[in-house]
């Protein structure tokens, strides 16, 4: 089935630029324009608006883009299954991840996976919780390594229970304590990861009715640590983020303990492509139950 023209439309909609979409597939801008025109003539309506600033989906395009993504996804599955039957292992995989997962888990996973499956290409997409949920729902990624939320509409397998910690400047009055009581955040100058990037921290603040004085927000957890190191405030961050920063800041267990579940999230484990199924197997094999990396 010739669905490349659909894939071109999907890519053009994602990057909002015909030239970039063409470069991704090795086509000229005129070639991309021709392919889109053919699809629009077949469908009987415009899919993309063109302007000097780029392209965007028309209302009609917004309605059909989920269907085009589904067609592209099933075609990729068909290609992979056919290759699998013929004794070949190839395909494309799109993996969404938190930045902390990308730093601490992915290098070993990718090294081992690519050593065994060099013909499976992998596109890594970093983002926050909200972005990962949207991309999974829209079919823009095949799986996400992220925080698992109750009743969030995806299937998931837990890889690690990730505890949260209080992160303080070394000179903080409570920095030498064995634990940090959650109520001590009330009124404290606080640096917060932005909503939509890590919603778990907002849930902690709400569940325990905490009212810190939020001074700064950032969508980069490592920037938050740097600001804490400079004495600009305190924060709550997961262990996977702070495990490399104990020399720069004081990291204390929370009282009471609070944690999140990190894992593999997909729309359906039964409908995974062969490449995705293999990748999930390597993730589970490489990440130990405590979230550490298994020995070589």
UniProtKB/TrEMBL annotation:
InterPro entries: HTH-type_LysR_regulators, LysR_HTH_N, LysR_subst-bd, WH-like_DNA-bd_sf, WH_DNA-bd_sf. SUPFAM superfamilies: Periplasmic binding protein-like II (SSF53850), Winged helix' DNA-binding domain (SSF46785). GO terms for molecular function: DNA binding; DNA-binding transcription factor activity. Keywords: DNA-binding, Transcription, Transcription regulation. The keyword Transcription applies. One of its GO terms (cellular component) is cytosol. The keyword NADP does not apply. Residues 1-58 form the HTH lysR-type domain. Belongs to the LysR transcriptional regulatory family. This is HTH lysR-type domain-containing protein.
